[in-house]
Write a structure and sequence with these properties.
Its cofactor is pyridoxal 5'-phosphate. InterPro entries: Cys_Synth/Cystath_Beta-Synth, P-phosphate_BS, TrpB-like_PALP, TrpB-like_PALP_sf. This is Cysteine synthase A. Pfam families: PALP. This protein has 331 residues and is an alpha/beta fold. The chain has two domains: 189 residues, Rossmann fold; 111 residues, Rossmann fold. The chain has ten helices and ten strands. The chain has a six-stranded mixed beta sheet with strand order 1-2-10-7-8-9. Helix 1 packs across helix 2, helix 1 packs across helix 5 and helix 8 packs across helix 9. The longest helix is centred in the last third of the chain and has 17 residues. The relative contact order is 0.16. Bound molecules: 4'-deoxy-4'-aminopyridoxal-5'-phosphate (PMP).
Length: 331
């Protein structure tokens, strides 16, 4: 899968900090995101345990990306549809009917059956997650992928951690990542700590614009950075071994995406940009001579209607201003 490449050597203020930041380019995976690993592990484990065979069915409920709500499970659908097809299985994705049309079209192009449902509370039997779970439970040779609670997610990322270890030759001091399901930070942190208990692991926490400005939030997840931000302890996140956290804002993520594009030619999504913000914060804490690793979860092309749409950003007061090599936008 994806390689780890030098992302940037940061300049802190006037003095150059001799410090290396490496990023695993997960947007290079076949389905375009870090979730390919999770889909592959979920389906492979189900095959090995005899719960799924060719001709079977994989189901998942994925949220839409409407309004300012987080789209936590957005990418998993694409990866599941793609990997299901590769294993000769069918894929069923349930999603709210206010999700972007292109999202359903993409899944259908990958051979999945998509059911769009009226948005209702998670306690309602017709909630998209409950529909996906029930669809798998009521037929043979079918699994509910359940990326939030299925520990195959975190096990997939033990391999991500192993790759990071191999690709850096074990020469890294810290790993930084946001958490959605928690699978990435759990798997990578367990592996890296097993190899070297001294590796520092920092989790990113989104800090919405209003909160950063001391104003009350309309909703606790009122941020445009998609995929990270967790409001419950999932079975995957439970496994994580974390030393600390950094707070990041949408404004920092937006500026960082432009920085990466102009500085490194990397076109990344919002959570990837946020992870890069976290590496700069960690760099300032750790100081010279360290190596910090993160993951670039997906590419910018999946975010053209929001995070990479100037009109949309303007509505949020987030018009990017970044120019040159200056990283002072990272607070
Ligand atoms: N980035 C994106 C775009 C995501 O969709 C997600 C979660 N679905 C994450 C990052 C977070 O990764 P994890 O679920 O492994 O915590």
């Amino acid at each position: 899968m994806s390689k780890t490449a030098v992302l940037f050597i940061i300049a802190g203020g006037a003095t150059l900090i001799a410090l290396k930041i490496l990023a695993k380019a997960e947007f290079l995976n076949p389905g375009g995101s870090v979730k390919d690993r999770v889909a592959l592990e979920i389906i492979q484990e189900a095959f090995q345990e005899g719960r799924l065979a060719p001709g079977g069915l994989v189901t998942e409920g994925t949220v839409g990306s409407t309004g300012q709500w987080l789209a936590l499970a957005r990418l998993a659908g694409v990866s599941l549809a793609m990997v299901s097809a590769a294993f000769g299985c069918k894929c069923f994705i349930a999603m709210p009917d206010d999700a972007a049309v292109e999202k359903a079209q993409m899944l259908e192009a990958l051979g999945a059956t998509v059911q769009r449902l009226r948005p209702v509370s998670i306690t309602h039997p017709e909630h998209f997650v409950n529909v996906a779970r029930r669809t798998a439970a009521t037929q043979p040779n079918a699994i509910f992928a359940d990326q939030f609670e299925n520990p195959a997610n975190y096990r997939a990322h033990l391999k991500t951690g192993e790759e990071i270890w191999q690709q850096t030759g074990g020469r890294l001091d810290a790993f930084v990542s946001g958490a959605g399901t928690g699978g990435t930070i759990a798997g990578v942190s367990c592996l890296l700590k097993a190899k070297n208990p001294g590796t520092k692991v920092t989790r990113g926490v989104m800090y919405a614009r209003e909160e950063a400005e001391g104003r009350r939030l309309k909703h606790p997840f009122d941020t445009i950075t998609e995929g990270i931000g967790i409001n419950r302890l999932t079975r995957n996140f439970e496994q994580a071994r974390i030393d600390g956290a950094f707070k990041g804002t949408d404004a920092e993520a937006v500026e960082m995406a432009r920085y990466l594009l102009h500085h490194d030619g990397l076109f990344v999504g919002s959570s990837a940009a946020m992870n890069a913000v976290g590496t700069v914060k960690a760099a300032r804490q750790l100081g010279p001579g360290h190596t910090i690793v993160t993951v670039l979860c997906d590419g910018g092309h999946r975010h053209l209607s929001k995070f990479h749409n100037l009109e949309y950003l303007q509505q949020w007061g987030l018009t990017p201003t970044h120019q040159g090599d200056d990283l002072s936008f990272v607070l």
